[in-house]
């Protein structure tokens, strides 16, 4: 086969052009630090890179979620801590007031401080994290407590209500919440303890087993009855059912929605497939029972006829609410510990994901520099060889 000058020139130019292409590819790697700049250069690397980048992006989002969770839990823990301190102060004041050396005016002054502490607890129940209320379940845009006026409606308001409206009311007495279950044959309102699931109103043994309040609005009287836990059938003198009359001012009537009852969890995904509830159930701490017992204590202190021994029951009720706060804070602390372990796991996953992504798409800079120097030498050699292969023509002499 005859090799012409034109064939030599075209071959030389083609090789020089390929050298430029290789040189450009290496320079792209050097400038970007990546093995490829277009998916067409290596579809396998591009496909794996998309998957690895998705994983890294997910981890980054989970880390942002962690920040939100910590903010929420820290706000809840701080509110519970302040609430516990407020209740301990109320207990301290109640214990101080139980001393019969205090006169009526001194107890009234103690009641004023307790009222301020109750209002402080109301503000704690309305704590916000950013623009979200943290003690209102999933309804984070509305305050759990809209006003204290619905926490003490008074007994007389019950006389104006029908059966459906009575169902929307809570009655608080002696650390217990009661719900309306019916009206007896004497026209008295029957309220049963919310915590008691049975017996139901109308059962044959309801009067013997039910923890109930009987409210006679016409006579403005309230009585309380419950089974006697220490009843001895062998002792006829012992009573099977304990009944007593209750001061009307010692019974607090409030709207069920005076304090939020939304106990739905607000969950945040912290790792793929694992969601953690960041809020606490407000019904376990901030509820009508808590505020009702504090209002009962205020009214008891304003009543000059009570003795120091009569205050014991109020102090015990405050102790129960303190225990509820402590228990809820302990449960929150356990969740914080789990979140910290998840954070450690995410940090390890982030390092691994970034390393895998780097191995897949990052260029080996030392190798790229060596390849660039070699390609430059090859390119210079190609230019030199081309200059020798392409022979001078008549046109070169006519210039």
TrEMBL record:
GO terms for cellular component: bacterial-type flagellum hook. InterPro entries: Flagell_FlgL, Flagellin, Flagellin_N. GO terms for biological process: bacterial-type flagellum-dependent cell motility. Residues 6-139 form the Flagellin N-terminal domain. One of its GO terms (molecular function) is structural molecule activity. The keyword Phosphoprotein does not apply. Keywords: Cell projection, Cilium, Flagellum. This is Flagellar hook-associated protein FlgL.
